[in-house]
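Recall the central idea of this unit: under ordinary conditions, the amino acid sequence of a chain determines the structure it adopts. In this exercise we apply that idea directly, starting from the sequence alone.
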Amino acid sequence: MSHMPISYDAVILGRLTRFGVQYFRVRSAVFCAATATKLMDRKPAACLSPEASWSLDPALLDENGTPVPFIEGQVLACQGDTSPGLYVIVRGQVLLSRARPDRPAQALYLLGPGDVFGEGGLQPSRQFYLSARAVTPGHAVVLSTALLRSLAQREPAQILSLLALLSQRLELSHRRQDWFSVSSPRERLLHVLAHWARRFGRTEGDDLWLPLGLTHSELADVAGLARETVSRTLTTLETEGLIERRARQGMWLKPAALWLHSAAIVGLPASRDAVPALQTGVVIG
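Accordingly, the structure predicted from this sequence is:
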């Protein structure tokens, strides 16, 4: 059997090729490790939302985003219109709603600082999935689709932060389904108010102020109840001394420690007599 002669140059070239592949593999591994170390060592900036697990650098919004101030009642987005990108709420409250051909718009989610909407702008259709209306004065920052593409390459940690903020909306949709599984209208409404108390409330003394500019119809949509049921339940809670309403401004929740502990407030009997016993030793969850 005859053998083809092997060129010395071919042997050298083969060895150099194998060495080059190994060299670039090592260099790539070192680069990836160094990049990961930089990301882990980066100090987190102030988080816009207390529920976000990743921190979004406020400087990113100031330097790259387009500010959108809004007043109470202003429509920020209409379902089906073109979305320029992600809206990050910095201050204020925004109500998201969705309309169907066979019924008027239904209120779905109440958003606040650190929440995001307008994600439809990332899809090929670039349309708003939901309508957005400002419930209070405030402002948001729009991150354009082009900017997000650039950030994905040079600021991957911030993209992870935005994904974390978006995941809060997904978690909220799951939580809303949990509310709907509660058969008692009273307990369901308590779940909704307790969630907003932790999300938007501020304590003043022993009580908690919840800014809330929703109508009874909008509150009923979010809770999946009839408007008459919501009105009747709120009146009952006020008679029991658990809330004190201020028309179209919000309500006082009493006491704050009770409202900040979901299990305690939801499990409270319909009699106000049980409240003093629950005020002591309540663990804030």
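Residues 8-41 form the longest helix (34 residues).
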